Amino acid sequence: MYNPPPPQPGNLPPPPSNLPPPANAGSYPSAPPPQAGQYGMPPPQAGQYGMPPPQAGPGISLVKDQQISLSKEDPYLRKITVGLGWDVNQQPGAPFDLDAVVFMLGPNGMVRAPQDFIFYNNKTSRDGAVYHHGDNLTGAGDGDDEVVSVNLQQVPMDVTRLVFAVTIHQSEQRRQNFSMVPRAFIRVANQETSRNICRYDLTNEGGMNTALIVGEVYREGPEWKFIAVGKSFSGGLGFLCQIFGVQSN
C-alpha cells in the first residue's frame, strides 16, 4: 500500500485570489417572505401561529361628516362587525324601544328590492352578506345594544352603500324622540380579529326627530370606506323606507 508523505510547510499552492469572502456564521441567503394572498395564502388570523390577539382599543374617533378608508386602515379586512349603542334618559310612561336597521343601496340611492332592507323581521340579506343579530328591546347595559355583521366579499357589486340607522319604535304613540336619547354611537370592527377600526359618538344629533342615520359603509373603487353621518329626520322608520325606496305592504 502506498502512503504519501505528509505535506511539508511551504509546499502547498496558494489559494485562488478570486474566491468570494466567507459567509458569516449562521447566515444563509434568504428568500423574500410570502405575501398574504400570494400562492393562495390567506391573511393571518389572530391566535394563529402564536399570533397574539389584538388589543381592543376604541379605534379612530370620528366627528360628524368625517370619512375614513376601512381598507387602508386594515388591508386584510374581509368581514366587519358594526355595533350600535345608545343611552336613554329615564322617562315616565312606556319604555323606549330603539331599532337598528340597514339599507343596502344601489347606484341610484335606492334599495334594489324590499329584501335589501335589513331589520329585526328580515335579519339576513338575500345574498347572505348582511346579518342583523336581533332586536334589543330595552337598550340596557354597556356596550353594543344591537349588532350587524357584514361580509364585504359577499356584498354584490351593484350595492354601493350600506346605510345604518336607528329609529324609535312607536315613537308617535309613546311621544318619544331622540332628545331623550342623549348619547348614541356606532363602531366598526374587523369581525375576524375583533380589532376596532373606528367609532363615532353622537351627542344630541337626533333632536326632536325620530329617525337617525348614524353612518354609512360605502364602496369607492376597490376600497371600502365609512362616513360618520349623524343626520336625523322626523317621520321615523316609515320616512326612511320612503326615501330609500322600500315599498310597504
Task: Summarize the structure in words.
With 249 residues, the protein is mainly beta. The protein has a single domain, classed as Lipoxygenase-1, CATH 2.60.60. It is 6% helix and 32% strand. The chain is built from 3 helices and 12 strands. It has a 6-stranded mixed β-sheet with strand order 1-10-9-3-7-6, with no helix packed on it. A hairpin with a 5-residue loop joins strand 9 and strand 10 (196-203). Residues 19-42 and 46-55 have low confidence and may be disordered.
Please summarize what this structure is:
InterPro entries: Stress/Tellurium_Resist, TerD. The protein is mostly beta strands and 249 residues long. It has a single domain, classed as Lipoxygenase-1 (Sandwich), CATH 2.60.60.
